[in-house]
Automatic annotation (TrEMBL):
Protein's name according to its UniProt entry: Sulfotransferase
Sulfotransferase domain boundaries: 73-333
Pfam families linked to this entry: Sulfotransfer_1
Origin superkingdom: Eukaryota
PANTHER family according to UniProt: SULFOTRANSFERASE SULT (PTHR11783)
EC numbers, comma separated: 2.8.2.-
InterPro entries to which the protein is assigned, alphabetical: P-loop_NTPase (IPR027417), Sulfotransferase_dom (IPR000863)
SUPFAM superfamilies: P-loop containing nucleoside triphosphate hydrolases (SSF52540)
Keywords assigned: Transferase
Sequence similarity: Belongs to the sulfotransferase 1 family.
UniProt GO MF annotations: sulfotransferase activity
Signal peptide: none
Top-level enzyme category: transferase
């Protein structure tokens, strides 16, 4: 369950390590040539294969995944644009898939943060870039999450995906507040106006936001049995219905008997904002994603509401974002509610 397993060395791992070295060299050669823009959390973001990434973990993690990750049909990948509901969905998928293993009274989520129960693939490979064998040792179904756009993942991805998207106005505000908390003290804070302009231009981690959402949306239309596309707003409105869909999709459908016993409601309650945000582990512990990314768990729980963007953005900002969204999603069949 721990995100980072101890590293040991065998001959196979040595071979693997040599291949990783090649990717590291490619990374070192590529990085200085990439276009740069202002970063939200780091000083800069770099532009690689059409997406904006932090220059260390995100870029190198992507390259390692593209070169070496071998997905399995039993894998469940949670894919998100940052601040769209990753933490919540990690808890819901983890507790749905593992519900026969754990009782609610002694559940791992009561003492372990959602990000430790359900590791980030991107950060995991960056941290353990000497070898991918550690991932191979995780039992099926491997629950892994990623922010990588669908179109940049290796074409051999034979696993199933759950994607969650959220209204861009709430994503932008949530992201701005979160990134300013993580931004090193030596860099001046980034203003909302500046974050807004960057977001509209597509410049934010794993942005442009609209390309990210559309990539998974189109793939889900083409392959609905492989990609379950969810919206944060629907999850807020009807959590039990969405959890039942998650059960079906992940191959762990709820039986009538479980429904009668209220198992779906128990999962929703366990993973609710009120419950998770008040647990000691989520109030006081840190999440160590990699050697350079350590985040206080409490930062993943702010308000958890729909529509909070309008408490920060001006009417003009909302209008402009709505107009960009309408233009980008035009004809796609995907719409946001507010
Ligand atoms: P806000 O900043 O709008 O409150 P991510 O997990 O992708 O980083 O997204 C974080 C957002 O999800 C934050 O939104 C956070 O408060 C919200 N969130 C975290 N846990 C949640 C939960 N259990 N239920 C609803 N929202 C949750």
């Amino acid at each position: 369950m721990a995100a980072f397993l101890p590293i040991s060395h065998t001959d196979n791992e040595q071979k693997c390590s040599n291949l990783m070295e090649k990717t590291s060299e490619r990374y070192k050669e590529t990085l200085p040539k990439l276009p740069k823009a202002k970063g939200w959390m780091t000083q800069h973001l770099v532009h690689y294969q059409g997406v904006w990434l932090t220059p260390k973990a995100a870029l190198k993690g992507l390259m390692l995944i593209q070169d070496h990750f071998s997905p399995r049909p039993t894998d469940i990948l949670l894919a998100t644009f940052p601040k769209s509901g990753t933490t919540w969905l990690k808890a819901l998928i983890f507790s749905t898939v593992n519900r026969s293993r754990y009782s609610f009274s002694g559940h791992p989520l009561l003492t372990t943060g959602p990000h430790d129960c359900f590791p980030f693939l991107d950060a995991y490979v960056y941290e353990n870039d000497r070898c991918f064998h550690h991932l191979d040792r995780l039992p099926p179904p491997r629950l892994l999450s990623t922010h990588i756009p669908f179109t940049l993942l290796p074409t051999s991805m034979s696993c199933r995906f759950v994607y969650i998207c959220r209204d861009p106005k709430d994503v932008l505000v949530s992201k701005w507040l979160f990134m300013n908390k993580l931004r090193p003290k030596q860099l001046p804070p980034i203003s909302l106006e500046e974050a807004f302009e960057l977001f509209c231009q597509g410049i934010s981690h794993y942005g442009p936001y609209w390309d990210h959402v559309l990539g998974y949306w189109k793939a889900s239309l083409e392959n609905p049995e492989k990609i379950l596309f969810l919206k944060y707003e629907d999850l807020k409105k009807e959590p039990c219905a969405v959890v039942k869909r998650l059960g079906e999709f992940t191959g762990h459908p709820f039986s009538l008997e479980e429904e009668r016993r209220g198992v779906v409601q128990e999962i929703v309650k366990l993973c609710s904002f009120e419950n998770l945000s008040n647990l000691e582990v989520n109030k006081t512990s840190v999440q160590k994603f990699s050697r350079d990314i350590v985040v206080d768990n409490r930062h993943f729980f702010r308000k958890g509401e729909v529509g909070d963007g309008k408490n920060y953005l001006t009417a003009e900002m909302m209008e402009r974002l709505n107009a960009i969204t309408a233009e980008k999603l035009h004809d796609s069949g995907l719409v946001f509610g507010y």
